[in-house]
């Protein structure tokens, strides 16, 4: 069942643990408090990795239903809307939450883009082979102990373990999502996607983003086609439509309010824009998804 709110809240790590150091590690076998915070509809300001060893978790990620099962891992970046019901079923596994500055305090700003699996738009669970699961569990057990110990040197040690953990995931579980550190084209597209997330409600023209990236609009389109299989304009519209879906499913705002929030000049244009993609009006889409 979808939980509707007037506004979709943004959760920070302060909500999870006021004493966090930029990273939080939970052992699901011993501590369910993290799930109690994360189950409500929210956008997060941090990265999330869930590795489930036993049990199942029903997830709604940006309005798309998914099911995390035993020996599976799933990850997603900031801004993703996450919702799942609290279940009494015993679970074993780990949840790792971390903020970008926690990583970039040691490594450069591009290091997280190397682990592209953290930001896939539609995150899907991936199977963890038994042999790899043993190694991941050892890393996570060490991280959880270090996190709970709260030693003054914990930040530096945990940064190193987090980098090893993400590297292991990228190499063994998400090899197709690894991005070369020196891949300038991919970094340029990632910068474009970050700008979209910040400016989509005000700026819809690819030329605006091309200017901000110090490249031509034609070159931006070529990069997007090469790296994402879509034009720059299509990626912008895709982001706007995803935000529209999230607001229609998870918020109590009316169509006019949503249209204004997304930067449309009038409601009729928003309805036409939405219906062209989904074949149904925003109101019809909301009704069709009200029982999810």
TrEMBL record:
Keywords: DNA-binding, Transcription, Transcription regulation
This protein's name: Helix-turn-helix domain-containing protein
Domain of life of the native organism: Bacteria
Domain HTH araC/xylS-type: 190-288
TM region positions: none
Gene3D superfamilies (UniProt xref): Homeodomain-like (1.10.10.60)
